[in-house]
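haha ok so turns out i had the wrong file open the whole time. this is the CORRECT one, sorry everyone. sequence first:
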Amino acid sequence: MTSEPLRVLISDDDPMIRDALREVLEAEPDIAVVAVAGDADEAIALAERHAPAVAVLDVRMPGGGGPRAAREIRERSPATRILAFSAYDDSGTVAEMTRAGIAEYLLKGAPNTEIVAAVRRAGAGWFRRTKLFDS
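then structure:
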């Protein structure tokens, strides 16, 4: 029995980060990157269109940043789980993203295995939440 791959949206204003993250995630047979965005507005629109299981969001990007994108994605695609991907580890930034409803907070520079594991953990939560929305 084959299951569908975990559908992921990546949003970061740095094209090198986007490309590297996409390469890491697409190397995994159970993960499919379905959309890539460069700012919060694009991430929100793509999440609404593609309904990914997981949205990996840069915390500081144009268009209102990760907090705005997380809030609006959760409104428009409630089953999507948010993984914050940031260079900032200060308590204020983490708290702001937590209030926006993230499932995970991961620092840029984390090993690839940790990134993949965080996406899978968030995705596992998505599947559990989806059952709630389907009942």
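Strands lie at 6-11, 31-37, 54-58, 81-86, 104-107.
again sry for the mixup
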